[in-house]
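Subject: ATP synthase subunit b structure
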Amino acid sequence: ALSYFFYFGIAWAFTKLPPVRRFLDNRVPQLTNRLNEMYYVGPIQQKKDHISACIAAAQQTKDMIQQLPKLYDVQIENVDLQLENNYRDRLKQAFTEVKSRLDCQVALAATKAELEKDYMIDWITNQVVQNITPDLEKKNIQSCLAQLQTLSKSAKI
């Protein structure tokens, strides 16, 4: 315990010397400012910066949370638009399929009507040709010639 008193006495006496005192008067404020900055002001400033960053992050998170309902509405609207697009695509595909089938039915009906008409014409022609006999043909030719002669006489007038 006496050694502490001894060293304290030497340090106290040493500080009373004028050159040491001038040196200490210049260096002590710098040293105290540096120690104050290192152990007191610096950590407090770091804590303040950290707290400010946390507050900014919390504010940003709060803003994001406030925007979530809008984001949810936008996502629902996006899904609705996709569903409507799918519905319209399927509707267009169904329309195209039905139209192609109806066009096929129309073409089939037109072809059937054309075939029936051709068959009817051929049948009537064949029946008429079969019903014409050589005697009937001679009578028709003679009546045609008679009509031509009458027309030629009336045309001369």
